[in-house]
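seq as requested:
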Amino acid sequence: MVRPSCILAASLALLPAAGLAQGGQPATAAAAEETWLPSLQTRTPQQGFDLAIGMARRAVGTTQPDVAVLKAGRPGYAADAGRLIDVSAVAAAWFATIAAANDYWRE
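struct tokens:
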């Protein structure tokens, strides 16, 4: 069973920073207003997956911008297999959206 209350927090803490396909969180308020996701189009499924991870992480950062708060909750879910699976469900949902937008990388 997916627990929506923990999915996003777990995503940020457990997914690799390399997944921030679009460059991570903006450094300034002006940068926050820039378009960070101009398209869901990617050349490869791997790039699509990296974008999905980045989208999940960005959603967490937008929802809870206080990294200290996010990290404080880490011990509660880092060793919980169910919550780790929930993180995968978030990435899978974003990846499915990106795959559909890319016509599943068919030519």
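Residues 81-101 form the longest helix (21 residues).
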